[in-house]
């Protein structure tokens, strides 16, 4: 039995009710609809906010993570006082403060092949607000198996994109990307950065796409929307082909549910994400690596050179005194870029202690007579071990 609008709903949603083609019918469709948002981060926060405000009857939120200080720049549902809380619980509080009558289901877990169908089967539309390839393939395969549209967003640096998969005769994610991109070509917001309004724009458009589909305003045409904050025009739309007949997921002979059970999504996408902070802290050869405390004592005791191989934009944020900035690509292309006239010890630093190892190895090969060491754990370790006032970003 469908739920009807209450008296106060006419006032709350009045600006939508008077829209041509939307009306009371469209609003009651939203009231009786359900949307599951997978990922309550930079994309999920604005999507949840607008879905709640628009009057979606039931919203599911899937996320296993807790709120950290670095989230607050773009994850707009959260506050300083909520650091350490589960994102799903904080998000529920925020969107129910917007719309108290909203029903919210929480799933404080990571989505995987063992639980995706059970969690997602009860919703009309799925939103992919995640930031990793294995979950994107899992969500797409699950959407195909369950016959649900999947509104997928992505954002990095100044750019973003939006597509709805498995809608009508439109493609699924595997149709467009049968094989994942090489691990080396994929980066995270932590590694590459993200401007908050960029991810906010894409998350808001995901909510809009879901509302259009649920209310009957969507034309059903599969498209890929590309957004760039630094170009004019900022948006361009690419028409997508129909689903591929031979797609292993949604094609005529697609495996559908069997594909989920038989797939190792992490292995398919190149394995676990490297823990660069842990890798940068591995001690290695004492002749080649130096700890923060050892470097501090060494710098105080004699002449030396420091090369910082971070990008120039990061060097501008913070740096060790008297260090020289030579970004890693420049140093690898031209080791002679730093050519002191003496053989004083040479110390190489970077953010986490990984790029510095590559640079130090190159410099040792080019200057075998010089002592070349890199900082274990990078400048983040320096902040923890030596100077707590040194910025961490």
TrEMBL record:
One of its GO terms (biological process) is protein urmylation. GO terms for molecular function: adenylyltransferase activity; ATP binding; metal ion binding; thiosulfate-cyanide sulfurtransferase activity; URM1 activating enzyme activity. The active site is at residues 189, 350. Its main location: cytoplasm. The keyword Cytoplasm applies. Zn(2+) binds at residues 172, 175, 247, 250. Binds 1 zinc ion per subunit. ATP binds at residues 42, 63, 70-74, 87, 131-132. The keyword Transferase applies. One of its GO terms (cellular component) is cytosol. It holds the Pfam family ThiF. This is Needs CLA4 to survive protein 3. InterPro entries: MOCS3/Uba4, Rhodanese-like_dom, Rhodanese-like_dom_sf, ThiF/MoeB/HesA, ThiF_NAD_FAD-bd, Ubiquitin-activating_enz. Its cofactor is Zn(2+). It comes from Sistotremastrum niveocremeum HHB9708. In the N-terminal section; belongs to the HesA/MoeB/ThiF family. UBA4 subfamily. CDD domains: ThiF_MoeB_HesA_family. SMART domains: RHOD. Pathway: tRNA modification; 5-methoxycarbonylmethyl-2-thiouridine-tRNA biosynthesis. It is found in: Cytoplasm, Cytosol. Residues 300-391 form the Rhodanese domain. Keywords: ATP-binding, Cytoplasm, Metal-binding, Multifunctional enzyme, Nucleotide-binding, Nucleotidyltransferase, Transferase, tRNA processing, Ubl conjugation pathway, Zinc.
